[in-house]
Amino acid sequence: MKNQTINIIILTVLSFTIFGCASFTKKRFRNEVVNLEKVELSKLTGNYSLNPIRRYYSLGKEGANDKISDSLKKNNGYYFLTNERKSEFDSLKKSESEYLLSLNLKNASKLKVELLENSKVIADTIFEGKHKNGMFYIENKYLDCNGIPFLFGGCRNNKRRIGLTKNGNLLINEAVSNEGALLFIIGSGYSYNLTYEYKRR
Q1: 59: burial class by Cβ within 10 Å (0-12, 13-18, 19+)?
Q2: Residue 143 DSSP SS3
Q3: Residue 14 lies in a domain
Q4: Is residue 13 part of a domain?
Q5: Domain around 66
Q6: pLDDT tens, residue by residue, 131-156
Q7: With contact defined as beta carbons under 8 Å apart, do 18 and 12 qualify?
Q8: Which residues are bridge partners to 143 per DSSP?
Q9: Half-sphere exposure of 130 (CA within 13 A, CB side)
Q10: pLDDT at position 164 over 50
Q11: Between 20 and 30 A from 132 (CA), which of 1, 27, 154, 175?
Q12: Inter-residue contact 112 to 81 (CB < 8 Å)
């Protein structure tokens, strides 16, 4: 009986791991995105605005503020892409300085990301990734669980991919999933896709 219970727990956790994870969708920006071939990934290399010019949200209809850049200033492209906290940067940011997000695709599986202040690198990181579905999938998945997942708790995970619009702007697409359960009974949870567009500079 004990072994049977353990097997049920293992199978349940594996099922949620496979089927409950965040998944990508192009639903909101399929008319904007260019499906890049693997040999075209180098087109991602370049400098982009640090703050987005448009937002694509998978839940609900597009709102008026989704196309107004001033309403999107709280989003920082570097920290959205790298999945890092930005509070320290925001406190040090100078209004007279120009900040840019810089991407350099070293090859089809390695991406260098830099935060520039007046053309000077102030933060950088390198990600592994791969070409898939016309975009570059970044290996910086995030997983955070609390309690005993799928018994008395849940897990939150997210992941990112990048692509280009037809006019050469950068798209950063984030997929998020938050699943919880109580004694194997799936409780409240949510999943969504959030995508921002950054102007090429």
Answers
A1: exposed
A2: strand
A3: no
A4: no
A5: 22-198
A6: 999 999 999 776 666 655 555 556 77
A7: no
A8: 157
A9: 3
A10: yes
A11: 154
A12: no
Sign of CA dihedral 53, 59, 64, 70: negative
Strand-pairing partners, residue 105, are: 111
Tally of structural domains, the chain: 1
Chain position carrying tokens 């049920």: 8
**pLDDT tens readout for residues 80-98:** 999 876 656 666 678 889 9
At 16, list the tokens: 């949620």
Angstrom CA distances, 65 to 46, 53, 71, 86, 166, stand at 27, 10, 6, 22, 22
d(CA 158, CA 173): 10
pLDDT at 180 over 70: no
CB of 13 closer than 8 Å to CB of 63: no
**Would 91 be classed as within a structural domain?**
yes
Q: Which residue has the tokens 């984030």?
A: 174
Is 138 part of any domain? yes
Q: Which of 190, 173, 178, 179 is nearest to 24 (CA)?
A: 173
